[in-house]
Amino acid sequence: MDMGLISGLCWDILLGDYRNDYKEIKSMNTDVYQSPLSERYASREMQYIFSQDMKFRTWRRLWIALAETEKELGLSQNGKPVITQEQIDELKAHAEDINYEVARAREKEVRHDVMSHVYAYGQQCPKAAGIIHLGATSCYVGDNTDIIIMTEALKLVKKKLVNVMKELADFAEQYKAQPTLAFTHFQPAQPTTVGKRAALWLQEFCLDLEDLEHVLSTMKLLGSKGTTGTQASFLELFDGDQETIDRIDPMIAAKMGFSQCYPVSGQTYSRKVDTRVANVLAGIAASAHKMSNDIRLLQHLKEVEEPFEKSQIGSSAMAYKRNPMRSERIASLSRYVMIDALNPAITSATQWFERTLDDSANKRLSIPEGFLAVDGILDLCLNVVDGLVVYPKVIEKRLRSELPFMATENIMMDAVKNGGNRQELHERIRELSMEAGRNVKVEGRENNLLELIEEHRPDEVVLGFPKNMDGTDSLRAPLYRDFAALLEKALGKSPVLWDERRTTVDAHRILFDAGKNGKKRKKTVDAVAASLILEGYLTFRRTQKPPGP
User: Fold this and answer.
1) Per-residue DSSP letters for 515-545?
2) What's the rounded Cα separation, in Å, for the pair 273 and 262?
3) Long-range pairs for 454-463 at CB < 8 Å and ≥24 separation?
């Protein structure tokens, strides 16, 4: 049996004495279907919350609360109390020893689960049999119990979620300074840290906790509102005393540990409540799925690995394999929970007027199984995060192999700050990056991007210098000398100031001869003039050192 089924929290703290009466799980039948959620994934604590014992003991607590409320409000007939303390004491004496056999036999006859248990309770409490369920409808026990069960289940989910978050926070703190390669589109991007990445997972769960706490804080009981939500039966019982009737729901809520009941309802509480609860579960599942997917990919890269037991078998065929089975199980269960959230949403949308029964069978499946699955997910998350193994050497090797690509952004930013054109630099670096990528992927060589960039660093910088036709400095010459000083500071080498006389005139002539006129010539004349300046300097350098201006 899965260890998650027999480990967990101290249930005495969570549900008081109920846990003491929890029966040991019996041996599994092999000739009938058994839910994997209870067999393999969900904890004993969560299974108890959705057990028959929890459900029917809660029914009896509700019947006791109703009887006490009616007695305390002075329900009487001809001056005599309708409900006595002796009857209430009798009900309390049998609040937990459910006579299931009697209830099942009765249900086969009457085909009504609530009335079958009213009958069974009455068999144990003959003095109180006549006042059980007085003034109530089936939804009094059914819907209030559903709210109570979902509330207790949310509390358990919250506790486990907080435990997962604590482990993630510890992991993030431990590896906050461990550099690793970040990915966008699962392509190498920029460096991050192992701890920072874990903080991304943690933040998702933080959002889930906020949603959970909000829904949990707004859970209310249905109360006892009768067949259509008007409390008509209590108007009859209390002779139309509206002031007394208005006290019924708050008193029942207090006895059951709630602060209030929903102020308006039909026969049932709004099924929108189920939708809100299921959406919280789906949110947790989505966060767990995202985390588990990342871990699966990291395990493929051999950078981070989920726990792997000493005798664990990864594959029946490939003995060397270390499959991330826990993370895969998290993803699998999470998809189920996310899809399961559609059930309450559709049920809520299709309720007719004050009540329709097509919600019942769906609720019996979707709500418990959503909780059982999330319970299993969180237990798995806790196990995985607590045992994550990080391989720094593998991480550092991959990071080093991609560092040249990642350095290009900083190179480009520095070059722009020193006067470069961002778009031109981006294009040149892109071309060199593609060349380096081909070297790595096609030829199996090391990443030589930085060497390629270094090869394109200029040995000299030639700056056209304005002179008059007689060879003296023009009026603009001081500005050019100042610019040359800035270039020298930025590049660490002094620019060559080269005589640019007649280069613009020659550029216009060349473009005219090439048939370039008007706007076309104006757009390219400076580029042609610059080429002439560089050509003149290179020709001169082949024969002698360039003179100063």
Assistant:
1) T--HHHHHHHHHHHHHHHHHHHHHHHHTTSP
2) 11
3) 456/428, 456/432, 458/491, 460/493, 460/495, 460/496, 461/487, 461/491, 461/493, 461/495, 461/496, 462/495, 462/496, 462/498, 462/533, 462/534, 462/537, 463/487, 463/495, 463/496, 463/497, 463/498
> Quick check: helix, strand or coil at residue 449?
helix
Sequence-ordered list of residues with C-beta below 8 angstroms from that of 149, at least 6 positions apart, any chain: 49, 50, 54, 55, 58
Question: Cα-flanking dihedrals φ and ψ of residue 115, to 5°?
Answer: -65, -30
Instruction: Please give the Cα distance from 143 to 202 (Å, whole number).
Output: 35
User: What is the predicted pLDDT for the residue at 171?
Assistant: 97
Domain 462-541: what homologous superfamily?
Answer: YqgF/RNase H-like domain (3.30.420.140)
Rounded-to-integer distance, Cα 169 and Cα 198, Å: 8
Query: How far, in Å, CA of 268 to CA of 71, rounded?
Result: 25
439 alpha carbon, distance to own chain's centre? 39
State how far the Cα of 4 lies from the Cα of 326, in Å rounded to an integer: 12
* Nearest of 123, 64, 57, 126 to residue 92 by alpha carbon: 64
Assign 3-class secondary structure to 262-286.
CCCCCCCCCCHHHHHHHHHHHHHHH
pTM of the model: 0.77
Q: Do 203 and 168 touch, CB atoms closer than 8 A? A: no
Q: How far, in Å, CA of 135 to CA of 237, rounded?
A: 7
Residue 152 sits at the vertex; the CA angle it makes with 149 and 153, to the nearest 5 degrees, is 85
Q: Is 465 exposed, middle or buried (0-12, 13-18, 19+ CB in 10 A)?
A: buried
Amino acid letter for position 100 = Y
Distance in angstroms (rounded) separating the CA atoms of residues 167 and 339:
27
DSSP state at residue 38? I
Domain range 11-23+33-312+322-390, CATH architecture: Up-down Bundle (1.20)
The helix/strand/coil state of 150 is helix
Task: Write down the pLDDT at residue 534.
Answer: 79
327 alpha carbon, distance to own chain's centre: 15
- Can you tell me the distance from the alpha carbon of 92 to that of 289, in angstroms, rounded to the nearest whole number? 45
CA triple 490-491-495, angle to 5 deg: 110
Averages of pLDDT over runs of 10 residues in the chain (549 residues) are: 36 39 51 91 97 97 98 94 97 97 96 96 97 96 98 98 98 96 90 96 98 98 94 94 96 97 95 97 98 97 85 51 87 97 95 91 95 98 96 92 74 71 81 82 80 72 84 83 77 81 82 75 76 81 59
Positions annotated as catalytic residues are 185, 315
Nearest to 157 by CA among 216, 219, 222: 216
Which pLDDT score, from 0 to 100, does residue 24 have?
44
Residue 293 tokens read as 């997917």
Helical residues (DSSP H) of 111-255, grouped into ranges: 113-124, 138-174, 194-217, 232-237, 242-245, 248-255
